[in-house]
Amino acid sequence: MSKKYEDDSWQERMKIKLDINNMFAKKIGGEHGYTPKDINNMQSQANDAHQAILAAKEKERLGFMELPETHQKIAAEIKKYVQANYQNYDNFVVLGIGGSALGNIALQTALNHPYYNLNEQVRDGYPRLFVPDNVDPVRLNGLLETLDLEKTLFNVISKSGGTAETMSQFLTARNLIAEKLGAEAVAEHFIATTSQDSGNLIKIAKQEGIKTYYIPENVGGRFSVLSPVGLVSAAFTGVDIEELLAGARYMAQLCDTEDLWANPAYLNATLHYLADQDGKPMSVMMPYSHSLKDIADWYRQLWAESLGKKVTREGEVVHVGPTPIKALGATDQHSQAQLYMEGPFDKVVTFLEVEEFKEQLEIGSGYDEIAGVSYLGGTTFNQLITTEKKATELALTKKERLNCTVIFPEINEFTMGQFIYMYELQTAFAGELYNIDAFNQPGVELGKEYTYGVLGREGFSEMKDEFDGRPSKDGNLII
Ligand code: PA5
């Protein structure tokens, strides 16, 4: 039986769209808006960037571009494993951080019921999902003391296999399982998702006989949600991971052109790049759908860690990078919107709009005699949130603020797959425009190394010495 996402007309209907009207002078005025000529002037730089991406792909350096194709078989295997095992567990816990957690959270928030963990009927036998994504002792202890460990499966995810936050979570959870259920139970209660050939986690997994999924070497953490990193936890909550990959493949086809006007990932990257160059480095993502709240968080890491760089590829010091900001409509209309409307002209707002929500909810009617309340009755929350988005968009536009919209016909696996792929490619393309390496993160190493030194990791004693010798703080400045 063919699947709905293999049907061309369904695909066409589910295509996500990028509306860039309000990035142009025609709509927001000449001082801040762009002209088609500005885009055309970028085409030759875009051609070079496109060629560089193709060359890197050819050399198998851009693993994220291969996942939608190469991981079809792996997705089918994951599905099979999940179908055979999900009923044995009430809880699925992801132990990971950054790129090994944010995509998992985003998929869960987007694709499952908003109260999935609390609603047994909705879960239909699938386990609850928890992704602590931190080492806060209160939060982690709170989770571990709440779960019935006998019915819990942990997926420890770390590409490097050495991340302190993840490995400390693992050590604690592993010891708890061994203590409560016996050392032989460890294999039944853990999955490891890591590099096949390097790092400590793979060694541990082999030693413990833990089921293992692999993260391809050429896929960086923040680009890994469509690898087993994101696929396993999604499948364990009933998400159709094959449809997710199908969505990514669909977007890959749409983006298979160097023509800026035809390639949504390239065009969006170019407009944001131009805006940054013109003194608008703040890139706000504002979904008008609570389901998309955490994909904005995923985007924040992707854009920040990839593009915030000190040096160009040639080593010239440049200190570049836009600042991604997550917001939420309509909630942040009552928190951030004032700043976006009247503060400095330093932002581009990307709205995420949903045409068809999964639910339609009517607003109750009443108080006919109170006009300021009764007008709401008989309309729907769908109308309210959509109108609020369009109203905020118009208000920003009137105030000459750059903004654009990604339109989701629906939120489903296919549209999420498209969005993820589009933004990953957009990030790689932006890396080319900035002429930086979008796939490393040297800036986060120093802080990690001090931590290793202080906690006594072998090979980091010099970092401990430097840390211990740090200048003392002036007590007068702590008030
Ligand atoms: O994008 C990245 O590479 C990082 O955010 C990593 O995902 C994060 O540091 C976790 O790394 P690891 O998966 O090696 O534990």
Task: List the SSEs and their pairings.
Layout: H1 8-13, E1 17-19, H2 25-28, H3 36-58, H4 63-85, E2 91-95, H5 102-111, H6 120-123, E3 128-130, H7 137-146, E4 152-158, H8 164-181, H9 186-189, E5 190-194, H10 200-208, E6 211-214, H11 228-235, H12 241-254, H13 264-277, E7 282-287, H14 293-307, E8 309-311, E9 317-320, E10 323-326, H15 337-342, E11 347-354, H16 371-374, H17 381-398, E12 403-408, H18 413-434, H19 445-454, H20 461-468
The structure holds 5-phosphoarabinonic acid.
Note down, in words, how this protein is organized.
This protein is of the alpha/beta class and 479 residues long. It is 48% helix and 12% strand. It has 20 helices and twelve strands. The chain has helices spanning 8-13, 25-28, 36-58, 63-85, 102-111, 120-123, 137-146, 164-181, 186-189, 200-208, 228-235, 241-254, 264-277, 293-307, 337-342, 371-374, 381-398, 413-434, 445-454, 461-468; strands spanning 17-19, 91-95, 128-130, 152-158, 190-194, 211-214, 282-287, 309-311, 317-320, 323-326, 347-354, 403-408. Strands 1-12-11-7-10 form a five-stranded mixed sheet, sandwiched between helices. Helix 10 (200-208) links the parallel strand 5 (190-194) and strand 6. Helix 5 (102-111) runs antiparallel to helix 14. The longest helix is centred in the first third of the chain and has 23 residues, at 36-58. It is globular and about 65 Å long. The mean pLDDT is 97. The structure holds 5-phosphoarabinonic acid. 5-phosphoarabinonic acid is lined by residues 97-100, 158-160, 163, 166, 220-222, 305, 441.
Helix count, DSSP H or I runs of 4 or more residues: 20
Based on Cα principal axes, name the global outline: globular
Helix-strand makeup class: alpha/beta
Bound molecules: 5-phosphoarabinonic acid
Mean pLDDT: 97
Portion in strands: 5-15%
* Low-confidence runs of at least 5 consecutive residues: none
Report the sheet with the most strands, covering strand number, pairing sense and barrel closure: 5 strands, mixed
- Distance N to C terminus: 69 Å
Radius of gyration: 24 Å
Relative helix content: 40-55%
Strand order of the largest sheet: 1-12-11-7-10
Number of strands: 12
